[in-house]
Amino acid sequence: MVELNKMTIEKLSTLTGKILTDVSYTNEISTVLDLVTEEQNSEILTLAAISSLKKIYDKLLTNSWMFDVKGDTKETEEKEVSEYRDWMRDTYNEVFCAICSKINSLSPEILESAYATSLSFLSAETVFVKLSRDRAGVFIEHILISKQSELVTRLSNEVSDLDWKYATLRGIERFSKKHSAETHVDMSPFVYQLLSSVDISEFTSSEHTEKKRKTDASKTIFHICKAYNSTWIQFLKMPKSKELYHTILSSLHEKVIPHMQNPKLLIDFLVDSYDLGGTTSLLALNSLFILITEYNLDYPSFYPKLYRMLTADLLHAPYVTRFISMLDTFLKSPLLPAYLVAAFAKRLAHNSLQAPPHVIVIVVRVITNLIKLHPSVKRLVHRGPDHAAVREDPFLPAEQDPAQCNALQSSLWELEVLAEHYCPGIATTVKTLRKPTDEILVGLGLEKGYDGLFKEYLKMWSKDPPLEFTEPLTFNQSEYADIFTF
Q: Are 51 and 110 in contact (CB under 8 A)?
């Protein structure tokens, strides 16, 4: 046994050579391992120890002898050989975990060496056996703990074959459970970065669904899809910054829900997000609507909560165009009751009186579409000035329940006010509601914004206004010298 405090690069090189050539020196692997775990060692000696272990296991991992599962050995095998095999396997696990722990080193050289060596070991294993989920999980955990975005990106490039996808998902799920405390909020971005790189769209497409039973890998694919489902649910329980929270919500309906086996498991997360209000509620809308319309989710509070979100202040928010676009989509269903559509139309019209011009144009177009899709709401437009609903509006703007706000007994008198708006586009759009039109829905014009609206009407002005170009002959500058300076 070589003493650690007297170990040099030369002695380590000699010891490594003996281990590679003489089986009786196999116990000395523990000595080299101690050099890796010893924190007081110099950087050069630690790098040399990692390099030595790589050389040793590059040779040992070239055959399947060490990976034979316990109990599967031949009956004639001697007990000593079986115990030696078990010891070698246990030692290998210790070596792998020790090298992975160095991925968190402050030294870039040690970090790089540990990453490359660990990945090399995992790749060598797969020649004879399936990728070890336990060792891959340890590898993934230390990469995430390192909080190195570059390392996560490099690992993402490895997540291509089935074994790696499954091992990565299981590793992330285990990591998320282990680091669910609020103190680990800074780790969530790296977990999200890695989880987002696991692409299973090829397994969830309709074409693949028809063929999956004919392939030998169908069982593995089934487990991958199942792991994808449980991993996302577990990850969403991790503490997250507000920015990451919004990033997840904005992409959930497009990148995650279509590939989940049971998207309804997201209901708790989405409902909690919907109840938070503000931008968070807005970002949760799309995913909730998809679960309701495509996955038969029973969520009666969706439209009442959406109604409460529609405030006058919201029409001044930066994300108002996105909200109105989604609202237009949510209200297109012909199965919606008349009182609900009338409530949204009335609340939109009522709040638009305080909205900026470019938002008013969009709101009026949404109301136009609502009237075309739901003829029962036309009565709100065609009630004349002598109607009781116009003389004394029964609508209750402070009522938060669309079923109790009396919108269906009211009228859209606000449109008459908007018809006299100083902005020509608003007046023109309002006047189209008074004329019989076809059933073709109008575009919302979300891309214009206030600047676009201003430029549009600026172009309508005459480019050559009339000017007095003849010099006046009766103007005497001397008479006005005390007033003007020429």
A: no
At 341-377, the pLDDT tens digits run 999 999 999 999 988 888 888 888 888 888 888 888 8
- The answer to whether residue 355 sits within a structural domain is yes
Residues sharing a CB contact under 8 Å with residue 280, sequence separation 6 or more, in sequence order: 245, 246, 249, 273, 274
Which residues 6+ apart lie within 8 Å of 268 measured at CB? Answer: none
Total domains, the chain = 1
Domain housing 344: 310-462
3-state secondary structure of 421: coil
**From CA 273, how far away is CA 324, in angstroms rounded?**
19
Q: Which residue has the tokens 């949204």?
A: 344
In a domain? residue 124? no
Please check whether residue 354 is in contact with residue 312, taking contact to mean a CB–CB distance below 8 angstroms. yes
Rg (CA), the chain: 35
Q: How far is CA 119 from the centre of its chain?
A: 28
Query: Over the stretch 179-199, which tens digit does the pLDDT of each residue have?
Result: 877 667 888 999 999 999 998
In a domain, 230, yes or no: no
**Longest distance between any two alpha carbons in the chain, whole Å:** 129
DSSP line for 313-357: TGGGSTTHHHHHHHHHHHTT-TTS-HHHHHHHHHHHHHHHTTS-H
Q: State how far the Cα of 232 lies from the Cα of 169, in Å rounded to an integer.
A: 9
List % helix, strand, coil for the chain (3-state, nearest 5).
Answer: 70, 0, 30
pTM reported for the whole predicted model? 0.78
**381 is a domain residue:** yes
Yes or no: say if 228 and 206 are a contact pair by the CB < 8 Å rule.
no
Residue 1 banded pLDDT, cuts 50, 70, 90:
very low
Contact of 322 with 282, CB cutoff 8 Å:
yes
DSSP string, 88-105: HHHHHHHHHHHHHHGGG-
The span from the CA of 352 to the CA of 146, in Å, is 51
252 and 266 in contact (C-beta within 8 Å)? yes
**Where is mean pLDDT largest: 127-136, 207-216, 365-374?**
365-374
Return the DSSP state at 130.
P
38: left (phi over 0), alpha (psi -120 to 50) or beta: beta
